[in-house]
Amino acid sequence: MSEWFETADGILARVWGTLGQGVADAKHPARLPTFATVSPDGLPEARTVVLRSADRETMVVTVHTDLYSDKIKSLRATPHAALHIWDAKQDLQIRLQAEVSIGSGAGTRALWNKIPDHAQQSYGVTPPPGAPIKGALEYVKNPDPATFAVLHCTVTTIDAVHLGADHRRVSFSRIGHWQGQWLSP
Ligand SMILES: Cc1cc2nc3c(=O)[nH]c(=O)nc-3n(C[C@H](O)[C@H](O)[C@H](O)COP(=O)(O)O)c2cc1C
């Protein structure tokens, strides 16, 4: 029987399975991707986020954030992101590129209402995220649905590296109809 990493389709299925595990399991490494954007000045920037959903049918993954955080300014200027995951147990690196649309306001209210109180604390702070403050704790958390944003990331490319006894690297793209292309690692 062949291993999942021996075929491009096997790897693609494993990538989406891994993203799904990240959504479902708070301890899974895919739970906390690095989310990279381009700043309005054209500089690279990256931060940890929580992966909230991943749907292979629509090719959309979602992330929640504060509407007043700097990443929103970046995404308004350049609506693209890269997500990076390293799953050591599977020897699997996943890199995604995505087009990002920002959901907020009435469209996100139903989702906001389902978020537990303690998690709502992550959205809404005075002064806004990234503002200079005099002391480390001179801010107030005030959960506010008006500051809650959902980043809808439509995946356009996937690059997967499997570091087994042999190293395998394969890329997939929307433009290439998700047919795997092996790459030299
Ligand atoms: C474990 C962990 C999980 C985080 N999850 C999120 C998240 O889901 N969404 C988010 O906006 N920021 C999250 N953050 C905070 C970001 O890493 C970042 O500090 C913050 O969003 C401000 O980023 P920005 O200034 O680039 O917008 C998380 C941080 C850590 C350490």
Protein model, in words:
It is a single chain. By secondary structure, the chain is α+β, with helices and mostly antiparallel strands. It has a single domain, classed as Pnp Oxidase, Chain A. The chain has 4 helices and 11 strands, in the order αββββαββααβββββ. It has helices at 8-24, 70-77, 109-114, 117-120; strands spanning 34-38, 44-48, 51-55, 60-66, 80-87, 92-104, 125-126, 140-141, 148-163, 167-173, 181-183. The strands form 2 sheets. Strands 1, 2, 3, 4, 5, 6, 9, 10 and 11 form a 9-stranded antiparallel β-sheet that branches. The longest helix has 17 residues, at 8-24. The radius of gyration is 18 Å and the shape is elongated. The model has no long low-confidence stretch (mean pLDDT 96). Bound molecules: flavin mononucleotide. Residues 32, 45, 47-50, 63-66, 69-71, 129-130 line the site of flavin mononucleotide. InterPro entries: Pyridox_Oxase (IPR000659), Pyridox_Oxase_Alr4036_FMN-bd (IPR024624), Split_barrel_FMN-bd (IPR012349). One of its GO terms (biological process) is pyridoxine biosynthetic process. Keywords: Flavoprotein, FMN, Oxidoreductase. This is Pyridoxamine 5'-phosphate oxidase-like protein. Residues 22-101 form the Pyridoxamine 5'-phosphate oxidase Alr4036 family FMN-binding domain.
